[in-house]
Amino acid sequence: MKVVMLLKTTGVQYDDRVRKECGTILKLGWDVQVSVLETANRRYAKRSADGVSIRAISLLSRRILPQARGLVVKTIEMYVRFLAHVLRVRPDVVWMHNQEMAGVLPILALLRRARFVGRIVWDQHELPPEQALRPGALHRLWARLMRACDAVIVANQERCELMLGDAIEPSERVRLHVLENLCDSEFATLPRGRPPAEVRKWLSGSTYFLAQGGGAPGRNLGPLVRAVLALDGPRLLVVGSFDFQERERLSAELGSAFEDKVYFTGMIPQMQLVDFIDEALASCVFYAGTRANEWLCAPNRMFQALARGTAVVVGSNPPMRRVVDARGCGVAVPGDGSDSHAIEMALRQVLARLEETKAAARATIGSMAWEDQVWVVQRALTD
After folding, report:
1. CA torsion, points 336, 340, 344, 349, in degrees to nearest 10?
2. Do residues 215 and 221 touch, judged by C-beta distance below 8 A?
3. Cβ-proximal residues to 104 (8 Å cutoff; 6+ apart), any chain
4. Helices in the chain by DSSP H: which ranges?
5. Residues lower than pLDDT 70 in the chain
6. pLDDT value at position 274?
7. Which residues contact 383 (CB under 8 A, 6 or more apart)?
8. Which of 6, 133, 266, 382 is 20 to 30 A from 309, comparing alpha carbons?
9. Opening angle at CA 376, ends 300 and 183, nearest 5
10. Which residue, among 175, 177, 182, has the nearest Cα to 17 in the 3D structure?
11. Under a CB-based contact definition with an 8 Å cutoff, are residues 349 and 326 in contact?
């Protein structure tokens, strides 16, 4: 039994959800092949240590056309290359990722009718465009696309409830499954990490708060930086991608204090994140609440911190506040983390109750496990 995954991502090594899903599908006895377009637009074929076959495609149109130009041409070429792979493999299940794959769905449905494909699973890590969530033509179109799938997966219950609109018939709602971004045992049981030598040298013995993925657009980096700078002692590690222009603006505004207390690591492979999580005072996780996709976030990085026993400071976004309020494993600030004073008060609360907060975070270890959701993957593959 074969599964072909289709996705567009920064890099497979940075996509923890794909890693966890592939591992689960393998353990269920299926063969998994990942066909991926990465940001580097580099073609290669390899097999992961877990036995997952990974085939990265390269687009000629990306090499010829300037960045952000000819998006329609690039998308069509991506679809053609993915579909060619599906036709070669003739998998039992095609597992598509995110809204970028919406346009390929009608063709996959035809291939299923012709028995080139057994089932279609659409894993929507992110919510669809805002217009698709409101009554109207796009909402009805999105519902029809989901209707063409055998299973649709979303990343938390809050998103599921939002997507269960009037355009989805009650009899079809059984197709919608919730698969939360919980941490798996492979990540949770990694040996204890510590920051690399160059980061330890920069820290020079100082403690630090962590902003894993906190430099990406919409993550309220500015308010968090200002909050940390208002404290005596702790510094801030920003792990992952970041907006270079925002970094330059903050540096110009805050001067030497910013350069002294904030460190940007750049992209880090998923399994090396423990080197930054394990010694953090807390992991700060914010999503600007301007769109439903952010307000109803699916916080992989929050679950990663808790799986390692590290407390969290989060916004009041419902999926995160639900966990923090129930378990006392950190602090949820009012709003979405756009108020630097509110963040500062939360960080001071963590420092004032550090041992108690750490103990509450450690108590969550093992209680929110990816492996508890294996039945969701099984149902998506077969029901």
Report:
1. -20
2. yes
3. 6, 79, 82, 83, 96
4. 16-27, 60-64, 71-89, 105-113, 137-147, 157-163, 185-188, 197-203, 221-229, 244-254, 256-261, 274-277, 292-295, 300-307, 318-327, 340-352, 354-363, 374-382
5. 165-172
6. 97
7. 151
8. 266
9. 25
10. 182
11. no
- Quote the DSSP letter at residue 193: P
**What is the pTM for the complete model shown?**
0.90
**Contact between 215 and 242 (Cβ < 8 Å):** yes
Q: Which of 79, 246, 136 is nearest to 71 (CA)?
A: 79
Helix (H, G, I), strand (E, B) or coil at 191: coil
Query: Residues 85-108, buried b or exposed e (16+ Cβ, 10 A)?
Result: bbeebebbbbbbbbbbbbebbeeb
Summarize pLDDT for 309-353 with one digit per residue, the tens: 999 999 999 999 999 999 999 999 999 999 999 999 999 999 999
Backbone phi, psi, residue 95, to 5°: -115, 100
Tell me how far apart the terminal alpha carbons of the chain are, to the nearest angstrom.
15
Q: Do 75 and 101 meet the contact criterion of CB atoms below 8 Å apart?
A: no
Is 363:329 a contact under the CB 8 Å cutoff?
yes
Whole-angstrom Cα distance, residue 91 to residue 83?
11
Alpha-carbon gap, residue 251 to 254, rounded angstroms: 5
Cα dist. 31→76, 109, 185, 263 in Å? 27, 22, 21, 41
CA angle 105, 110, 111 (to 5 degrees): 95
Beta strand pairing call for 44-47 and 53-57: antiparallel
| One-letter identity of residue 60 | L
Residues contacting 199, CB < 8 A, separation 6+: 237, 263, 265, 276
Q: Are the CB atoms for 258 and 229 separated by under 8 Å?
A: yes
Q: Half-sphere exposure (CA, 13 Å, Cβ side) for 272?
A: 11
- Between CA 92 and CA 3 the distance in angstroms is 6
**How high is the pLDDT of residue 23?**
94
- Of 16, 29, 18, nearest to 382 by C-alpha is 29
Whole-number Å distance between alpha carbons of 323 and 319: 7
